Amino acid sequence: MNKYSRITGTGSFLPPKRVTNAELAAQLAATGVETSDEWIVERTGIRARHFAEPEVSTSDLGVQAARNALEAAGRKPSDVDLIIVATSTPDMVFPSSATILQNKLGIAGCAAFDVQAVCSGFVYALTVADAMVRTGSAKCALVIGAEVFSRILDFGDRTTCVLFGDGAGAVVLEASDTPGILASDLHADGKHVEILCVPGTVFGGKVHGNPLLRMDGQAVFKLAVGVLEEAARATLAKAGKTEADIDWLIPHQANIRIMQGTAKKLKLPMDKLVVTVDQHGNTSAASIPLALDVAVRSGKVRKGDTLMLEGVGGGFTWGAVLLDF
Ligand code: UT7
């Protein structure tokens, strides 16, 4: 048994191809789909996204983020005894992207599996890893969020295709005598499947149903702000803390308006909000560890800071993790 788990290193990786709103709008215009930089910035805060090349997979992005996190933690791949990848865009139907990533790291033997909770995937994966570290199943875990959402976008649907991008983020989570992860709070409500889903599946060697993302943006928006506040408050209560203890709010990077709405409900000043959505759009399960890594490397987030991580997404799923960095 270990008393706590603690993040000892962070890493991230964006594929090199960066597409600005203006560039995307020009590409879409060529196929008769109308949008603009002004609309995207005003409604979402997004200015650019990164798209992986066709031969690049989720595990390729994830392994780069993982290597960066291991380097920051001063650990080698051989130190890792658990790998969890949060993703909705796995390399294959099976095996998991985590096992493929494990092989790319040049290691074998440790437990490796994927967690599928869409944009809440990273807070789900971090909570599972924390539990496994505290019960002694692991000492040095890699928790990764990695996505190639560009593969599941309908570029004929302007209400969704301008929102998402590809990327990966990772943390090394180690056993520790001091906290660490303080509390977490996870939820799901499957009756909302229809408002955000990729309904297609593989059936008898063919794609059965629509294999592209569809979303009722307004329904997601309304649900998101409410549940993010509830999850944050529940997590603070479990840890015996209040909003005043939060140094940084690091929410899922989907839409600046949702993030600002959540910060406002928690009465947090906007300068405590970590925002990177402008640079990479919604990268689903990758967005929280990506934002965390950017905030750490820029010197914003420092050792000892108290962080509230929050995810919300398809399922509907949502949750929060409070931690001392
Ligand atoms: O990771 C999980 C997360 N998903 C989210 O967090 C998404 C949550 N939802 C949202 O972020 C917002 O609902 C959107 C950004 C998706 C949409 O913003 P909105 O303020 O709710 O816009 P809307 O859906 O009410 O659409 C307003 C107008 C419509 O035109 P009319 O009917 O008023 O003429 C849309 O057709 O904007 C139009 N529109 C666009 N115009 C230019 C929708 N998409 C676009 C576009 N470019 N890309």
TrEMBL record:
Keyword annotations of the record: Acyltransferase, Cytoplasm, Fatty acid biosynthesis, Fatty acid metabolism, Lipid biosynthesis, Lipid metabolism, Multifunctional enzyme, Transferase
Protein name, entry field: Beta-ketoacyl-[acyl-carrier-protein] synthase III
UniProt key word Lipid metabolism: yes
UniProt cross-references to HAMAP family, sorted A to Z: FabH (MF_01815)
Top enzyme category: transferase
Domain comment, as recorded: The last Arg residue of the ACP-binding site is essential for the weak association between ACP/AcpP and FabH.
NCBIfam families assigned to the protein according to its UniProt record, in alphabetical order: fabH, PRK09352.1
Catalytic residues (positions): 119, 252, 282
